[in-house]
C-alpha cells in the first residue's frame, strides 16, 4: 500500500540523486510523487498490507501503462516527466523489466532514478510479512544490482548521498497501521479529503470534531478520513470534480487512416489477443466481439481520414459499452485500448509516419482513453 510517507521518502531520494546528477531536484521530486498514479485504477484489495496473489501481481503490471496514459498529453513539462517516470520505474537496466522491456539508455533517466529510489524505500520499509532491511544491507542490494536492475551511474550517485537518504528516512517514518476495522478501510489524508469536499482543511477538522464526518488518528496523530464517508458527503453536498478533457487532434491523420484500412483488423485481433493469457481469454478475444471491433476500427479509420473525430469517440463509447455488457471489466477495456494503440503506433511508424502524425495519434488515443474512463465513471454512478 502506498502511503504519504512513502511518497515523501521516495521523492526525497529522487531529488538527492537528481541533484548529484546535475538535474533539477525540485522538478524530479515533484514528478516522482506521481510514479504510482496508475495504482488508483485498482480496487482496495490490492492496496492491503499483505503479499499479493499471482493474479493480483499480473494485474498490477498494468499500472505503469495506466499511469502513463493518465499523465500524458497535457503539454506540461512536469507532467511529461511524471508520465515517463510512471511508465518506466519498473523497467530494468538489463531489459528484463516491464511493461516494455526497455534497457539501458532507452529508459528515461528520470525513470532510472525512480527505480533506484523506489526500491531503496521498499527495502527499508517494514511489511507485515517481512521486517525492514537495514540501510547498509539495502545499499549492498543496490550495489549488487548495478548494471542489472539499475543504471550504475544512478546507483553510484545515490550511494554518495546515503547519509542524506538516511536522514530522509528519519524525517518521514512509516506510519503504523491500526487494527480497527475503520483503519483497514481506504483512508484519505486531511488535505485530500478537504479537496474532494471543496472545503478548507480547517473546516474539515471542525466537521470531524462536531461528528459530521468520521475520522481516525494514525499512530503519529494525523487525521485520516474513510474514503467512502468522504465520497458520500461530497455527493450529498453536490460536489463534483471537473477534469479538463483533452480534445482529439484538429487535423486529419491520413497515413494512420491508410494503416487502419489496410491492417486494421489485424491490429485489432492482435490487440484483443494480447489482453489475455492463453488459458483465460475474455470478451475481446471472443467471436462475439468481432463485429463491434470491426465497426470501431472502420469508424476510426474514416475519422482519421476526414479529421472529424466525434464519430470515433462515439464508436469507442459504443464499443466499451458493448464490452462492459459482455462482462469485460474496466482493466480489460483499458488494456485493449492500450494494446491497440501500441500495435497501431508500431504500424504507423513502420509505414513512415512523421512526428506530427505520431503526436496526433497519441493525442487521439489519450482522448479515447479519457472518454472510456468518463463512461466507466458514469456507469458506476448509475449503479
Automatic annotation (TrEMBL):
It comes from the Bacteria. CDD domains: HDc, HTH_MerR-trunc. It holds the Pfam family HD_5. GO terms for molecular function: DNA binding. Residues 1-174 form the HD-GYP domain. This is HD domain-containing protein.
